[in-house]
């Protein structure tokens, strides 16, 4: 496994774990339950699907898993934006912005990987 792959594996793992830690710190209210659950699922799915992509049986399988990483990164950005609007406390604003930025960067990375995989068929 090359160094860039390992760095991205670590980055996606940390994205999911850090999201769960952050969500656990947010105040509880029934209205936030669904967005928090959706975000927990999508953010951890990024890393798990990238991990699965490493064991892909074909380029097509790899591209499919990377496409899922791309979609889950987009979804994570969406749910961070939703929760950022719901939690209006200034103490969370920088965290939401940081997580949104990370999910956008991951989305761009996976888009690039997928395009290069498809173009090299």
Search tags:
single chain; de novo design (two linked rop proteins); mainly alpha; elongated; 4 helices; 84% helix; 121 residues
Nutshell version of this structure?
Helices cover 84% and strands 0% of the residues. With 121 residues, the chain is mainly α. The radius of gyration is 15 Å and the shape is elongated.
Q: At the third CATH level, what is the topology name?
A: de novo design (two linked rop proteins)
| Superfamily (CATH H level) name | 23S rRNA-intervening sequence
Look at the structure and give the mean pLDDT: 94
The count of DSSP E runs of length 2 or more, i.e. the number of strands, is 0
What's the CATH class, please? Mainly Alpha
Instruction: Give the DSSP E fraction (strand runs of 2 or more residues).
Output: under 5%
What can you see in these coordinates?
There is one protein chain. With 121 residues, this protein is mostly helical. It has a single domain, classed as de novo design (two linked rop proteins) (Up-down Bundle), CATH 1.20.1440.60. It is built from four helices and no strands. The model has no long low-confidence stretch (mean pLDDT 94).
Topology record:
Elements: H1 3-25, H2 33-53, H3 59-86, H4 90-119
């Amino acid at each position: 496994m090359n160094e860039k792959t390992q760095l991205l594996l670590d980055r996606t793992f940390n994205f999911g774990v850090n999201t769960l830690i952050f969500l656990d710190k947010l105040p509880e209210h029934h209205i936030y339950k669904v967005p928090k659950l959706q975000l927990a699922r999508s953010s951890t799915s990024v890393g798990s699907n990238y991990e699965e992509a490493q064991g892909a049986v074909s380029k097509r399988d790899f591209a499919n898993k990377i496409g899922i990483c791309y979609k889950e990164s987009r979804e994570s950005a969406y749910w961070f934006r939703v929760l950022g609007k719901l939690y209006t406390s200034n103490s969370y604003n920088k965290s939401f912005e940081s997580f949104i930025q990370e999910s956008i960067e991951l989305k761009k990375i996976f888009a690039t990987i997928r395009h290069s995989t498809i173009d090299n068929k």
